[in-house]
Amino acid sequence: MQDIDWHDLRFVLAVAREGALAGAARRLGVNETTVARRLARLEGRLGARLFERGQSRLTSTAAGQAAVDGAERIELQIQALADRVAGSDRLAAGTVRVTSVPVLVNRLLIPALPGLLARHPQLRVELIAEPRDLSLTKREADVALRLARPRKDSRAIARRIGQLAYGVYGPAGGDAGALPWVTYEDAMAELPQARWMAARPGQPAPLLVNDAEGVLQAVAAGLGKSLLPISIADPLPGLTRLDAGAAPLTRELWRIVHPELRDLTRIRVVLDWLDGLAGQLAEAES
């Protein structure tokens, strides 16, 4: 087998992450012909086919996945080396991509972000509000804050940093008994909040949403009642908590990071920031 060129492996990563030659070309700033040529050259050197064309995208073969895994490790090692050489290991500098569900991005992370950036002026944070779980392995994000332990991204490191207590909220002045339940679309029917509401008496509201941010907005608009995080909903005008006593439901807060990124200074700073926010939530709910 001939020597492998790291630059060819970059093309493998781009194809794996985009699932198409066109997407890989846009990511790398080249044309599709160049992507196809570099991919074919690497397959020739390895003596193995790396991708198969499915109905709508290119998928990795077993050999291709092995190449992708190896290329990801090299990519991270190169990034860590560049940071150390540039002195970034002593300074939180550069970009960190953080993903979470929209309600946590909008109501928890963004309000707390000015303090983090003031302490670390060379840090740049990209916040990705996304109901689905983005893949850290595929570098769709560097760090994730999630409401359940991840079942995918088995190589990622997950740590439980707290919990989120929920209460039943309705619009201020609403008749709790007459309000319908604002709940989630069918694809999200297995969420603990959705299951809890489905087991209670009452009719569903004439709309379905795919994230708690939509639930919050619907409740504030007077469309019904629903479960919402207490630490987020309590301070908001226009909402009132309808239940009393202990929280009817709690969910765990997990932060997830790729193992080969966690020792970078900028990543550690963001992880510590998330841990601190989880601690503040616990204080607010106590």
Overview of the structural elements:
There is one protein chain. The protein has 286 residues and is an alpha/beta fold. 42% of the residues lie in helices and 23% in strands. The protein contains nine helices and eleven strands. Strands 3, 4, 5, 6, 9, 10 and 11 form a seven-stranded mixed sheet that branches. It has a two-stranded antiparallel ribbon with strand order 1-2. A two-stranded parallel sheet has the order 7-8. Strand 1 (51-53) and strand 2 form a beta hairpin. The termini are far apart.
Task: Give the secondary structure arrangement, pairings included.
Blueprint: H1 6-18, H2 21-28, H3 32-46, E1 51-53, E2 58-60, H4 62-85, E3 94-100, H5 102-119, E4 123-129, E5 143-146, E6 157-171, E7 181-184, H6 192-198, E8 204-209, H7 212-220, E9 226-229, H8 230-233, E10 239-241, E11 249-257, H9 265-285
Parallel strand pairs: 3-4, 3-5, 7-8
Antiparallel strand pairs: 1-2, 5-11, 6-9, 6-10, 6-11
Helix pairs in contact: 1-2, 1-3, 1-4, 2-3, 5-7, 5-9
